[in-house]
Write a structure and sequence with these properties.
Layout: E1 2-3, H1 10-17, H2 21-51, H3 57-63, E2 65-76, E3 88-96, E4 99-107, H4 110-113, E5 121-127, E6 130-133, H5 143-178, E7 180-192, E8 199-208, E9 211-219, H6 224-227, E10 233-238, E11 246-248, E12 260-261
Antiparallel strand pairs: 1-12, 2-3, 2-5, 3-4, 5-6, 7-8, 7-10, 8-9, 10-11
Helix pairs in contact: 2-5
């Protein structure tokens, strides 16, 4: 014999998840923070890149034209450290079709930059309005890496917490899907939990093939404490595999008990 799966309403699923308020709060916070940081940094970096578009240095290297230039200024960004090195912004001028042009080039090559001084002659390669200094590696700020560095810890935490939440609620979901409906006698109904996630802690007793069993269940249906008192009968789901596992049947979930089919 096997037992068909009983459908679970969205309201009941939410009620089951709410049985773990702290875990739910931390999970929701981790998800929202990871999404918020990703969107925030993506927006900031998109604005920065739109204001100062990054040249396509590979295309300049492959298709650009060389010209003589001269260094105007060298500014090493000591407040930025990448692998214990500081990027340098080199300002320079060069001649393009007889017109004097000015541009800047950022590099993370301190050994070569130390050999340069203001006024040095350099070879510039340009394509359109974009240019680069020959012999130096361009440095592009790792915006994408920063986004992932900031957002990843929160995303990992969110995934781990979601998995824990699913594992914690798995037994209760299984009871709602496949549990046998039995009558139980209420022992006590007591409010418990956080102020923002107040629930009822229900103790009850029901009879199994091996004798009476004391059960405990949480419910967010606060009307139960007014509708039932000690000694009243209440419906519970009992696991067909382990009759010590049970939970209170939510209001509106008992009209369609699972049907039995032969193998």
């Amino acid at each position: 014999m096997y037992r068909a799966s009983r459908p679970i309403s969205l309201k009941t699923r939410i009620s089951i998840i709410r049985q773990y308020p702290l875990l739910l709060i931390f999970t929701a916070a981790s998800v929202m923070l990871s999404v918020a940081f990703f969107l925030l940094y993506s927006t900031i970096f998109a604005i920065v890149e739109r204001g100062e578009p990054t040249p396509d240095y590979d295309k300049i290297e492959a298709e650009g034209v060389t010209a003589e230039g001269a260094i105007i200024d060298i500014d090493t960004k000591t407040n930025v450290t990448i692998n214990n090195e500081h990027p340098s912004v080199i300002a320079y001028s060069y001649s393009r079709d007889g017109e004097l042009m000015h541009d800047t080039f950022t590099t993370l090559d301190p050994d070569r930059v130390d050999l340069l001084t203001i006024g040095d002659a350099i070879t510039v390669r340009y394509l359109g309005n974009a240019s680069m200094i020959e012999g130096l590696e361009p440095f592009e700020f790792p915006f994408n890496i920063i986004i992932w560095i900031v957002a990843t810890p929160f995303a990992i935490a969110a995934v781990v917490l979601v998995i824990i939440l699913l594992v914690r609620t798995r037994k209760i979901v299984s009871l709602h899907k496949y549990g046998e409906i039995k009558d139980a006698t209420v022992i006590s109904i007591t409010p418990t939990g956080l102020a923002l996630a107040r629930q009822l802690e229900i103790y009850y007793q029901y009879t199994t093939r091996l004798g009476p069993v004391l059960g405990k269940s949480l419910s967010s249906d606060h009307a139960l404490q007014f509708e039932h008192k000690s000694g009243d009968t209440i419906k519970v789901f009992v696991s067909p595999k382990d009759e010590s596992q049970s939970c209170v049947v939510p209001r509106g979930e008992i009209q369609n008990p699972p049907e039995l089919f032969s193998k």
